Write the structure tokens for this entry.
Amino acid sequence: MSASSLPLQRIAITGSSGLYGRAVIRSLRTALPHAVVLGIDAVSPRSHPPDVFVPVDIRGSGCDAPLAAFHPDTILHLAFAVRPSRDAAAERAVNVEGSARVLATAAACGAARLLVASSATVYGAWPDAHAPHSETAPLRPRTDYSYAAHKGEVETLLAAFAAAHPAIAVSWTRPAIVCGPGVRNFLSDIFLTLPCMLLPDGADTPLQFVHEDDLARATLAILTANARGPFNVAPADALTQRQLARLMGIPALPVPFAVINAVSRAWWALRLPWVRTPPGLAHYLRHPWLVDSSRLTRELGFAFAHSSREAFQTVLAPQQPGVDSPAA
């Protein structure tokens, strides 16, 4: 049976306990209430649990048997090591090697659709970039920012997988910075803990923020349409760093990029507390990496319910106990 004729009835989600996974499950309960969801994650669900949950770390072979036994028509691979790690081998084992294993399992278990979480950071942050980027723009992730570099490697795997398995509708999302109530990640930690907004070389860089509910709805729209290939996911508006500072009630301070870069690397190397800024992230606060999400609108009729401003303001709301979530 082809992907176009097989309905979404049995949906497997790796990373089901994370922000993205929980948001998708929440949307599924409304849009497809009869669908059965298998959740695979190393962390047990604390909210919006799947129908069936298997506690598995994707670095091993533990997810192979549960996926095969579940017979999914759709697989969402959302598991990724988001929080920066100083153990580069372990981080890559989850992000790249784990993704390769999930792809192999998807082919073996007969899934009709496969959607993978990528990131808008794959376009890179460069002085010669022509943002906003469409999905056809070249991918140039910063190799000194492991999160973006690993997403770029996974997209290379995806392109090869899609070419080798034309019967499977393979798609992937490239969201901007994901926000939602109670969300805490290393980017929100920077925004919420620094006494001032640092402007690298005085740059007032614009940033896009996507609400978790919009990301989940876009994901379901892609799956329902059996769409293929990459989809940018971000509202059209953006907030500059000075605008972010005003929303947070803090000053914006121009600082030489060389100083920010040196301090962030030293801070990371010395394992100092407070700001967990990985090397390379400073470039994404210096150069624009905006995306154009018109493919979602043009091909799928999707409309964002929340602006970047509205999405970011959910982070500023009184904090509930949160979980680590994708920065982008």
